[in-house]
Amino acid sequence: MTALVILAAVVLALVLLGQIRLGAAVDYTAQGLCVRVKAGPLRIQAYPRPPRPEKPQKRKKKKKEPDKPKERASPLAQLRQYLPLITDAAGRLKRKIRVDSFTLEFTAAASDPASAALMFGGANAAVGMIWPLVEQNFNVKDRDIRTRVDFTAQRPEIALSAAATLTAAQAISLALRLAAGFLKANSQSNSGAKAPARQKEAV
User: Fold this and answer.
1) Diameter of the chain by CA atoms?
2) Which is higher by pLDDT, 58 or 153?
3) Are 199 and 74 in contact (CB under 8 A)?
4) How many domains does the chain fold into?
5) Would you say residue 138 lies in a domain?
6) pLDDT more than 90, % of the chain
7) Domain presence at residue 144
8) For residues 121 and 185, what is the distance between their CA atoms, to the nearest angstrom?
9) Is residue 197 part of a domain?
10) Model pTM greater than 0.90?
11) Is residue 64 a part of any domain in this protein?
12) Residue 117: how many CB atoms within 10 A of its CB?
């Protein structure tokens, strides 16, 4: 009986931990970009990183000769290799990521009124095309998008604030799937690279 109670308590604890929401909050203004990571009630600023205290300088050791860099696949080849995994991940995240808040304020402005008006129209057209896709793929709780035009200003201004989360269970499941997929893709690419070398040795 005691073992069953302990097992039930462990299962309940895992279920509750799996419901903790993980996510990130992004703020962009004229002052710059700020990214914070969220884990339940915990908030950690990821960018810009707070300055670290300076450590006492250690004696410099003799530098070893760097090893010859291993040949790696080109970025385009790597992108093609991992594109199916990225696409699969995007599909699995559909409707699982919750956009808790999204606020966008854009002010169109330019050196002449005609350019400012064109910028304002282009911004509205972009929002009209992109935002429906966001709502189709994510669970949006709160949004506030505002665009306006200022014929007296010389430069456009944008302010963005967004926060998105998903449960820890969803994040762990997705991470395990991606890790397994990346390991499999890497092993296949490594075996494919070794095969031609063996063939040359045989010749």
Assistant:
1) 80
2) 153
3) no
4) 1
5) yes
6) 32
7) yes
8) 44
9) yes
10) no
11) no
12) 14
